[in-house]
Amino acid sequence: MDYSALREKIDSMQEEILEGIRSCVKIESVGGKPEEGAPYGRGPKEALDFALDLGKKLGFRAVNVDNRAGYIEMGEGEEMVAVLGHLDVVPAGEGWSHPPFEAEICDGFLYGRGVMDDKGPTIGAIYAMKAIRELGIPLDRRIRVIFGTNEERGCDCIRHYVKSGQELPVMGITPDAEFPMIFFEKGMTTVIGGLKNPSQGEIKVLEFSGGTAGNIVPMYGRLVLEGEHQIPEAQGVTVKYENGNTVIEAEGVSAHASVPELGVNGAVRLLKAVRPLKTGGDFQKLSDFICDKIGEETNGKTLGICFQDEETGETTVNLGLFSYTDEEMYLNLDIRYPKNGKKEDVTNHLKKALEGYGLKLLEERSVEMLYIPKDSELIQKLMAVYEEGTGDVAEPKAIGGGTYAKMFSNMAAFGPVFPGDPEVAHQPDERAEIGKLMNSIGLTAAAMAEMSKSV
Predict the structure, then answer these.
(1) Which of 13, 45, 390, 419 is the most exposed place for a label (fewest CB within 10 A)?
(2) Is 176 helix (H, G, I), strand (E, B) or coil?
(3) Does the annotation mark 314 as catalytic?
(4) What is the structure's pLDDT at 120?
(5) What is the per-residue pLDDT for 25?
(6) How far apart are alpha carbons 25 and 102 in whole angstroms?
């Protein structure tokens, strides 16, 4: 295997590739209000049209799948391999020093929302097809670049692609994570527990709230109790009295739910501080459950769901959202487990644990794990491409997060972030170091060519 000529070809196309990526980044493809012919909003549809038109101009077959997804394709053969990327982006947000939708180049970096997640790598894959064709690399399988336009808001785009009867790849990659590649993504179960119309106890709860998302360790928690009450001093906890009520606030350390051990849960801090003060009622049940069954523990051992696997890690549990109102009292648990875990076991253990405290399982959602054996054709090909292209001898990774690869079987995340580089997706000043972006596109091109070889 020697793809040096292909990588050199990609490098020679840098100006053309950057022009294509910049044109796409300038499209503000944030999901929006559905319109006729634009089910996910005008921006994602415009980005899809751009990618399909670019593919046509370069001489590839292009297909629009009901304005929700699309693809371009080259080659012949019964089987097809694919690169899956998405063209929608998250909102720009605040804190940019470079305009998020102008695709500025400054000091060797390309700035803009989507340059790494996922427009840069996806548009780059179109040019990778061009490079493969111009070098005349023989293909046993067709190569397809599939475009999604709703990844940031639930992936309905590729679900529609599948449901509409489109051909499925025999293997593929998505440039939606990091190198060298991801061979395992944990199974994920979200459990929402609590009660509807909770009953007050001896001390009335006026408010209990915190958390920004289920997949984030909450930095803050807030509890307001009717009346003035003495609360013992505790680290990260402040108490004040307003209008005859007691306001308790706690501050922790935020982290992603895939690595909750790196954070400090503000809600747990708060409830442990007020535990000597018995509120009674249904809030007491919620508080006791959190303190007894979760606490500072992040692997689910006390809940009976601590699955451990040498190859793919152990369970993580994150209490991400919580609330108390007159209508509903709830907590949101983000649970991720290795390959020997089962979602049925997770759900059953949580249901039993909640019921032991007089609480109910209100809702459960699960996403299947992704596991591709290390000795599979796909993993062997991708690791060989990575080693040949970088000289780095590495191991494929198991992660707690989820990538676009879960949309298809036998697909793995491959790039675009290199080991040791910062994660800039969804951040202000999202950017790509141009040299490394070109290297990642070169690796994508080599992966496409290698996957197209039949064994």
Answers:
(1) 419
(2) coil
(3) no
(4) 98
(5) 98
(6) 7
Known catalytic membership, residue 151? yes
Cβ atoms of residues 144 and 80 within 8 Å: yes
Catalytic residue among 117, 118, 151, 152: 151
CA distance linking residue 58 with residue 21, whole number of Å: 15
Average pLDDT over residues 78-97: 96
Q: How far apart are CA 454 and CA 403, in angstroms?
A: 26
What pLDDT score does 172 carry? 98
Nearest by Cα to 372 from 399, 348, 333, 343: 399
Predicted confidence band of residue 402 (pLDDT cuts 50, 70, 90): confident
| Short-list 2, 20, 14, CA closest to 126 | 20
Residue 152 confidence (pLDDT) above 90: yes
Q: How far is CA 329 from CA 39, 167, 209, 238, 455, in A?
A: 34, 45, 10, 23, 56
Q: Kindly state the DSSP code that residue 112 receives in the 8-state scheme.
A: S
At a CB cut-off of 8 Å and minimum separation 6, what does 422 contact? none
Question: What is the tens place of the pLDDT at every residue in 320-349?
Answer: 999 999 999 999 999 999 999 999 999 999
Helix (H, G, I), strand (E, B) or coil at 414: coil
**Looking at 28, 88, 152, 430, which residue is catalytic?**
88
Can you count the helices (H) and strands (E) in the chain?
10, 24
Distances (CA, A) of 92 to 111, 113, 123, 283, 438: 12, 6, 20, 38, 24
